[in-house]
């Protein structure tokens, strides 16, 4: 449910639904945050004040700022099964509108972590997106240290900013973090040495 398409209740066309901390109404995700905060799942045809708010993928997207309760502790988390030692590529889109004189702010920042370790603050700072929510792709990686990994996205916008989009989240297992050793096996070294000796003898014969 990386594009937040499945929710209970279902998000109506042109509208949004709010989800409180500890809610599991967004399938596969858990809402996190302090009491009194929330996140919102927004339909792609929603419009308000300056702007229209299309999803990056599908019919819905997630607003990390919620509905007027913006706080840096609000967001969503999902725990997935992982293979210890494998490297994972996490990609996601952050949506922003540039509304310096309105309620939607000027930048959108998602604070991302895995198992409590920060993977960074990812900011969409477009300034030409004055009428339409505009999306920017980000990708980061981490190496799994346990068989269960919790990926978390928190709102990183100031309290005056009431729009911070997240959509099309994807996690891909790229396999072991370190590839096969390039050091030859002992038998290979022996064969290589024999080859060099043969070449040396050939060179001496040609010289003689």
How would you describe this protein?
It is a single chain. The chain starts with 15 loop residues before the first strand and ends with a helix. The protein is mainly beta and 208 residues long. It has a six-stranded antiparallel β-sheet with strand order 1-3-6-13-8-11, with no helix packed on it. Mean pLDDT is 89; it is low at 180-208. 11% of the residues lie in helices and 40% in strands. The chain has one helix at residues 186-207, and strands at 16-19, 30-32, 39-43, 47-48, 51-52, 60-63, 75-81, 86-96, 108-114, 117-124, 134-143, 148-155, 165-176. Strand 9 (108-114) and strand 10 form a beta hairpin. The protein has one helix and 13 strands, in the order βββββββββββββα. The protein is globular, with a radius of gyration of 25 Å.
Notable characteristics:
single chain; 208 residues; mainly beta; six-stranded antiparallel sheet; five-stranded antiparallel sheet; 13 strands; globular; disordered C terminus
Shape: globular
- Strand % is 35-45%
Structural class: mainly beta
Can you list the strand order of the major beta sheet?
1-3-6-13-8-11
Average pLDDT, all residues: 89
CA radius of gyration is: 25 Å
- Strand count: 13
Unreliable parts: 180-208
State the distance separating the first and last CA atoms: 76 Å
Tell me about the biggest sheet? 6 strands, antiparallel
Residue share in helix:
10-25%
Secondary-structure element order, as H and E?
A: EEEEEEEEEEEEEH
Q: State the helix count.
A: 1
């Amino acid at each position: 449910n990386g594009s937040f398409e499945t929710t209970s209740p279902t998000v109506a066309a042109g509208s949004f639904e709010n989800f409180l901390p500890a809610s599991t109404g967004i399938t596969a995700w858990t809402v996190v945050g302090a009491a009194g905060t929330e996140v919102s799942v927004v339909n792609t045809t929603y419009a308000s004040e300056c702007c229209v708010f299309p999803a990056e993928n599908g019919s819905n997207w997630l607003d990390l700022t919620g509905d007027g309760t913006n706080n840096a502790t609000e967001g969503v988390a999902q725990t997935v099964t992982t293979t210890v030692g494998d490297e994972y590529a996490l990609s996601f889109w952050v949506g922003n509108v540039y509304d310096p004189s309105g309620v939607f702010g000027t930048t959108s920042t998602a604070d991302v972590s895995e198992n409590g370790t920060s993977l960074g603050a990812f900011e969409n700072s477009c300034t030409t997106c004055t009428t339409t929510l505009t999306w920017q792709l980000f990708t980061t990686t981490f190496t799994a240290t346990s068989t269960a990994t919790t990926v978390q996205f928190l709102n990183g916008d100031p309290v005056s900013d009431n729009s911070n989009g997240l959509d099309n989240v994807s996690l891909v297992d790229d396999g072991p973090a370190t590839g096969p050793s390039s050091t030859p096996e002992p038998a290979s070294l022996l064969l290589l040495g024999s080859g060099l000796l043969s070449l040396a003898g050939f060179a001496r014969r040609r010289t003689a």
